[in-house]
Design brief:
Helix content: over 70%
Number of strands: 0
Oligomer: single chain
Strand content: under 5%
Structural class: mainly alpha
Distance between the termini: 38 Å
Number of domains: 2
């Protein structure tokens, strides 16, 4: 058994990055209150450990958050809002909006494009939510050949990372 009385600040700091207080208490066979007391005594903030785990996004700490988010998103009533948000993110907020503001696309053009793109995204989401993966694969195979000559994509995740960090920093400072 591990000795709680001789635990070093460094050891507790490392454990704090990976485990909640309840798990540390279990490991050392002490109460959660003792873990919290020693953490405070050593000046180890709980949020710092959780923040490090959340930022890494590959820890056991992150899994319940990812599970919750997946379950919250993958509901049929979200198809409309998801399709519109994806359209805004992937299509409207960028080059297309620049073209619109430069007068290269009219308001009517922009509306028609937004509706078309949102409806197509909603169609893919509806098939995915229904588990109709064969139909999605057939669509993928068909359009993959039509886009074969395009430049290789470079996944753009900067905004995901920026919003994730902003969300948790704002929560951390409140």
């Amino acid at each position: 058994m591990l000795d709680w009385d001789t635990i070093s600040p460094q050891t507790l700091r490392e454990l704090n990055k990976e485990f909640p207080d309840s798990r540390i208490a279990e490991m050392y066979n002490v109460s959660v209150g003792k873990v919290r007391y020693k953490r405070k005594k050593f000046g180890i903030a709980l949020k710092a450990g959780i923040w490090d785990n959340l930022r890494s996004q590959d820890s056991a700490t992150m899994q319940p958050f990812n599970d919750f988010a997946r379950n919250a998103l993958l509901e049929n009533q979200n198809i409309d809002a998801l399709a519109k948000a994806i359209t805004q993110y992937a299509f409207r907020s960028g080059v297309v909006e620049d073209m619109h503001s430069d007068g290269k696309l009219s308001d009517a053009d922009m509306k028609a494009l937004n509706i078309f793109f949102s409806n197509r995204v909603a169609g893919i989401l509806a098939k995915a939510f229904a588990g109709e993966w064969l139909q999605i694969l057939l669509l993928f195979d068909f359009y993959k050949t039509l886009s074969a000559g395009w430049d290789r994509v470079e996944p753009d995740v900067k905004e995901f990372d920026m919003l994730f960090e902003r969300y948790f920093k704002n929560r951390d400072s409140s």
